[in-house]
Fold:
Amino acid sequence: MSDTLATAVPKLSEVEHVKIASRYLRGTLIESLANRLTGALNPDDTHLIKFHGSYQQTDRDLDSERKRQKLEPLFSFMIRVRVPGGVASAPQWQRMDALSDAYGNGTMKLTTRQTFQLHGVLKRNLPAAIQGFNEVQMDSIAGCGDVNRNVMCNTNPHESPVHGEVVRIAQAISAHLTPRTTAYREIWLDGDLVETTEAVDDEPIYGHTYLPRKFKIALALPPYNDSDIFSNDIGLIAIEENGELLGFNVAVGGGLGMTFGLNETYPRLADLIGFVPADKVIDVCEKVVTIQRDWGNRENRKLSRLKYTIDRVGLPAFVAELHQRLGYELAPTRAYQFHSSSDAFGWTQSPSGLSQLVLFVEGGRVLDRPGYRLKSALREISGFHTGEFRLTGNQNLILANIEPQHVARIQTILEEAGAAPKADQLTALRRGALACVALNTCSQAFAEAERYLPHLLDKLDAVIRAHGLAETGILIRMTGCPNGCARPYLGEIGLVGKAPGRYNLYLGADHVGERLNKLYREMLDEDGILRELSPLLAAYAADRQPDEAFGDFVVRTGVVKATTQGLDFHS
Ligand code: HEM
Ligand code: SF4
Structure:
């Protein structure tokens, strides 16, 4: 065979073969679950279970000790429950709380994509946990895997009719792009793990091999970019005029993951390609998904996100194909402006007289520990609160639509539980910080993130306060590896784990999620991080221009070059 011919035949990645053989995501999951000799799944099923919303993990704190004792690792599962638009009811909150105690590690993680994650679920408890979500109309299908994931939208549906419509559209996009296979129902919900449901083997949008890689969609209503829309495969910016939702600006090709040492991988922000009326936005999402289904790279998973497809074919060719599949052209992008990508903490009252409380949740972890009983407090509140529990994309929680007679009671419960920190107890740096899970559960982690960032912040807070910056919002984000689950490349200070206790430091993202940062220093330990950041924060306090954000300051003063697009992230 000639070299040309050999390279012309695509060599599908291992996961593609698993998908092909899976019969619409069934694989041998039923056998894997029934096998009591191991806490793990059959190897192929570890890929498939992601489409069902779960990752097989080990307790990495215990890995070496168990190896020494010649035991298999302590396998358990993370389950991610989709919450399109982040909106959960009180009964749903109560159920997640109860399931985290019954089957998880007693905590809930509110994630950077507005989902719930439970950790530490043993294989034998997976069906009961999933049945538990199902009873309160929640599911984990497409929580992970090569499909459209949880659709993000942090807009408060009760603020105005337009806000409500944006959230409804987010939920409709989610429903439209949910896999149709009945595998999820058969495996998890149909009683004795036998195939009792009539199988549906038709995926009109995805086809039987689904997408080449994960796919993410987020919506935002300016001036808030609190779902960081440009980090998504599709970002939608709602355009409102005179109290009416006109439609959405459409951005395509965002994604943050990269691999150290492989400069052909890079974070990339989505490009704006036009405007679509509200009644056509689902159609646009579907067609973008199908182009990625057909054109995405199925050989190398490191290069298979939509962002690489677009940079490979060029944006004009991508847009031309989209217009052809739509049968019409997008209109020119409308004017908009984002002012913030953070959550505004504290109490507000809506015109209806109902209140809402945006509550800071450190690292998104809902738990009880001495002096801080957030989980118990929220459980008590869920017993009488008639409004919603809304998860934000910044790992915080909004108690929404609080009735007037419950306001004081909720505040008292949180205060007595030590879970209602006053604004002046927390610097703005800490209030806006994000950290991914990392150790001890994430198999990808090179370093700590969620467990360590609060300690680093104790030290950084001292620097911040010394320079009078306690109330200055600076976005700091830490992850345990370069996959970027807590959006570190959109942090004005990004810290990405490279080895135990060592982080790469990235600087120079803007404050509203419209510019990526750039590598500043590598392999810093804690002393190194403080040594590098302290003089920069001092200079910022002394020399910043009015309203200048830290990320803009370090670019203006030449500390780092501005990253203008993903392809120049590494230069
Ligand atoms: C590119 C490769 C990626 C891989 C292999 C990956 C894998 C994982 C794994 C295994 C977890 C579970 C960790 C745990 O709960 O123990 C996780 C969590 C998560 N990932 Fe990723 N991820 C990737 C990129 C991303 C990106 C770019 C985003 C979005 C910006 C993202 C969003 C999330 C979110 C929201 C969580 C939940 C944890 C949190 O809020 O910190 N992931 N990821
Ligand atoms: S960024 Fe890396 S370490 Fe953190 S949760 Fe994602 S994959 Fe795991």
In short: The CA atoms of residues 360 and 545 lie 29 Å apart.
